[in-house]
Amino acid sequence: MPDPAVLKAKVDELGARKWDDKGLEERMRKLMKDDIPRKTLDPAYMKAHKAEILDHVELLAEEYNYYLKNCAQGTALALFEEFGIGNMQTIKALTPFPGVGGTGDMCGGITGSLMALGLFFGTDDRTKPELTDPVIKLSQKLMAKFEGKLGYMYCADIIENIILGYAINPGESDQAMIQFGHDQGFEKCGLPPGTGARIAAEFIIDSME
Q1: Cα separation, 138 vs 128, whole angstroms
Q2: Are 45 and 82 in contact (CB under 8 A)?
């Protein structure tokens, strides 16, 4: 069950955080130039340093959401970079996914995480669709765990009940977007990407032999 006090404390911390805009821009330019670096993952190392890795990927998702102003892209990029998967073209493809086209629907903290799970656990063999079943089941577990942490899966519900305390859809108008930014929506909305990325990262590490 969600803990409202813990969630509020996190949202307040994100709103008060001093963000390294220059450093984030430099990191983004490097990713744009060099793409996502490939990694050789050592299961023993990953398991031994699981807590540290989860903290790091959560922080990355918060930072990238703030910089990109896009929860789906921020979530996916954090996971891509942490595990050496995907590419920046896939991040580009996630442009319309905050709240699913800005409608207030499914949170980008979920959709960005599902994209990473698909890349990590999915199969390249398109002749065996049955191999997608385990990924679908894992995706459902991620969504359930995300909802268990925050109490909601839809962007509109998360903004109204956790992030800002009132209903607003920043994607519905320029004025709404300005209001959202004025009330530190982009900073505070690091919570869902951090949550989704952390859950997905834990699933990935726990799967390692």
Answers
A1: 18
A2: no
pLDDT tens-digit map of 42-72: 999 999 999 999 999 999 999 999 999 999 9
Quote the DSSP letter at residue 38.
P
Separation between Cα atoms, residue 113 and residue 79, nearest integer Å: 8
For the entire predicted model, the pTM comes to 0.95
CB 111 within 8 A of CB 97: yes
DSSP-assigned beta bridge partners for residue 106: 154
Residue 48's Cβ-count burial label (10 Å; 0-12, 13-18, 19+) is exposed
In whole angstroms, give the CA distance from residue 78 to residue 179: 27
Residue carrying structure tokens 């994607």: 171
Paired strand residues for 154: 106
